[in-house]
Amino acid sequence: MSDSPYFDPRHYGIDPHGPWPEDVPKGQDDSHWRYENDPKGARRAELRVAFCWSLTLLASIGLAWVYVAGGQTQVEGALWAMAFFGLGVGFILWARDLLPGTEVTASRGHHDVCAEEDRRAVAESLTRGIEPMARRPFLFKMLGAVGGVFGVAAVFPLASLGPRVHLDLDHTKWGVGTRAVTEDGNPVLPTDVAVNGILTVFPEGYITDALSPTLLINVGDLPFEIPPSREGWTINGLVAFSKICTHAGCPASLYNVQSHQLVCPCHQSTFDVLSDCKPVFGPAPRPLPQLPITTDIDGYVVSQSDYHEPVGPGFWDR
Amino acid sequence: MSTTEERAAEQKRYAAGKSVLDTVDERFGSSRFLTSVLDKIFPDHWSFMVGEIAMDSLIILIITGIYLALFYVPSSTDVIYAPTSGHVYAPLVGQHMTEAYQSVINLSFNVRAGLIMRQAHHWAALVFLAAVLFHLCRVFFTGAFRKPREVNWIIGVTLWLVVILEGFTGYSLPDDLLSGTGLRVIYSIVEGLPLVGTWIVYDFWGGSYPGTTFLTRLFVIHEFIFPLLIVGLLTAHLMILWHQKHSDFPGPGKTETNIRGSRVWPQYALKAGGLFMIVTGTIFLLAGEIQINPVWLYGPYNPYTVSIGAQPDWYLGWLDGSVRLWPHWEFASFGHEIPNPVFPGILIPGLLFTTIYAWPWLDKKIYSDYGAHNLLDRPRDKPFRTGVGVAAIVFFADLTIACGSDILANDFHVGFERVIEVLQYGALLGPVVGFVIAYKACQALQRTGAHPIQRPLGGVIIRSANGAYHTLSDHHGNGHGDNGHGDNGHGDKADAVANGHGTAEEAPAPVGAADEPAGASD
């Protein structure tokens, strides 16, 4: 047995010139396979593999045919799966039943770490360069300064990526007498919003501006609390609040008519419309800003000015 | 058994193979390296296979991703839906959308085999992250991150992080209403960062939300930067694994300095290849039969509409849940503010990931164990570590459930306020309860029975007439009947006893967990 190539220490991670480690058994032989002594079983195993691969063959023909016929996602999925399963299971059965390789134990080597002499050698190699360098502290300081300045200069091109932060986070496209229009661009009469109704409006010409969408809400005759400084910001029962949630910027678009609350569908921040859209539940920290509105000469809804505070989520310099 | 002709053919094949290898060796001196490759041993345990599933999913992602990239148009240009020849998706006719969204719709409906490739790509990403997380848990609970494998832990956690971001960027590319809402939330979270937030978002988006250049940049990030990072990190991960050799559970005959398992050639090569094909088959089955991310139903993105039931993909649910559960607190003072979403969206994930990164070193301190280990812990033998792991899982699970708070409220007919309050308490108390239960369960499991390696291997040694030894009632020693070591089939029985003896010496301290931290007792 010992002349078999499988007993070469090289196959067990063992140095052929060194001693045989105690924790690696001698005389292991992983040249055996499952049906080694059972020719009929081996033949059956071979047929099993062949069967699996025939499934792949059939599925492949099917895939080509389905593609030519115009493609059909469900059938394609089933056929792709069948093709891969057949191939894969066939490989695994081949390895399990017909190929050698029972478990064996080998050496890990010396934890794959080096001997102390090797470690000393590498430290010496490193020191060869470090020592003479350390004698020039001035150059090190110089290099640090130059590297820092060069590093800053080198990132300047990144500044081309976006505009410098201007004030457009503080402002929307609403201004003095800006007409409110619907999604389709039509101007809005105060009577377009029924009592308890809501309507999303945009500053005319800026329907896609992300910070400007505004909700017109008709609260009818209900008591509506607003600070004295905002007298005259409404058209009878018609009030306008920013649609952009002060939490994470989603559109706060669910209006509960019974409780007169606006709910943001993203994180369930809830705002009480009748008391100045103050947050009453959820993570939003601030009320939705109110837009002062009035009607223009044609009777359409317009803004009196921009919002008096930045809309949407907070930021450092808000 | 073999006939003369068979033996001659065998010799011929051996000579042919050898001459090829010799030719290579003459150029590269490769024989010793190739021997180590072909002879390489990987321990056999089902849980070691899950990392392979992650790698297999990555291969599928790369192949399907290249296919998708050939059709996707990374452009924010506004167009009116114009289907390429073939199917027209009627509900979108006449609608404004970005070119990006239109290209995804056309890829889904008008490119033959386009939809299954898209769905396979998305499913593979979900499977990838599930496998990554399972693999991470396996490594954590068995202590596989201990010396000398700390660096691979760091690389692995980084891979998890990058794969999450890669998944999120890919999910955002179609520019549909659902993913656009997710991007809006991420924009708001990053915008809130102290000092640099607004600068970062302006540079990434090319201006205030939604920007004009973002999809092009997202495409570069998703197609180029993150994949390069993932492939690079994975290569390092595997090279280190290869060099250090795989860790293994303790067992009869196993020591810190040997390794037991099947060889790469031919067993692992064929079985790993087979596993790859089965993973691929499963993903394509999911892709064909179970619809995923039907962006045509969500519609194109615009900043003033949102759908109810806006949940991210599952692997980011915890982040969305965290943002939902955090109360309305924020910090505002000295003319500046740190807005609300920064705390649950950046601070909490930051603390979690810092702890996860630091765990190998915390673990050393906790157990005063600075040594190298190739043999793994059983989770029950380290109740404190297992408790911490279970607490983390409970915490993440609670946050993940919270990302569906609106769905839960709707399905169970309770107010969403109650759902959120319950989950807020759950996030605080759940981990504590999870820790205590896991800790006690580990202790109870320890009492139910010793580890196989800690049991005496048999009691009676019998010496047979021809001088061989064997043991009576040695069920544990022979549990791995196919193991080949000790050579139970072919004489030389003394080996079995020698192994048994060696095993006993390697056994860790008896049950009772002397290696538990001093403070952690019941």
Please provide a written account of the structure.
The complex is a heterodimer of chains A (318) and B (522). In chain A, strand 6 and strand 7 (261-263) form a beta hairpin. The longest helix of chain A has 30 residues, at 39-68. In chain A, 29% of the residues lie in helices and 13% in strands. Chain A has helices spanning 39-68, 73-98, 116-134, 137-154, and strands spanning 104-107, 180-181, 198-203, 214-218, 238-242, 254-256, 261-263, 270-272, 278-281, 293-295, 301-303. Chain B is mainly alpha-helical and 522 residues long. Chain B has three domains: 4-39, no CATH class; 46-377, Cytochrome Bc1 Complex, Chain C (Up-down Bundle); 452-506, no CATH class. Chain B has a two-stranded antiparallel ribbon with strand order 1-4. In chain B, strands 2-3 form a two-stranded antiparallel ribbon. In chain B, strands 5-6 form a two-stranded antiparallel sheet. In chain B, strand 7 (461-463) and strand 8 form a beta hairpin. The N and C termini of chain B lie far apart (64 Å). At the A-B interface, helix 2 and strand 1 of A face helix 2, helix 5, helix 7, helix 8 and helix 9 of B.
Outline type of chain A: flat
Structural class of chain A: alpha+beta
Number of helices of chain B: 17
Classify the fold: give the CATH topology of the largest domain in chain A. Rieske Iron-sulfur Protein
Q: How many beta-strand segments of chain B?
A: 8
Supply the CATH architecture of the largest domain in chain B. Answer: Up-down Bundle
Based on the model shown, name its key terms:
heterodimer; A: 318 residues; alpha+beta; Rieske Iron-sulfur Protein; 4-stranded antiparallel sheet; 4 helices; 11 strands; 13% strand; flat; B: 522 residues; mainly alpha; Cytochrome Bc1 Complex, Chain C; two-stranded antiparallel sheet; 8 strands; 59% helix; globular
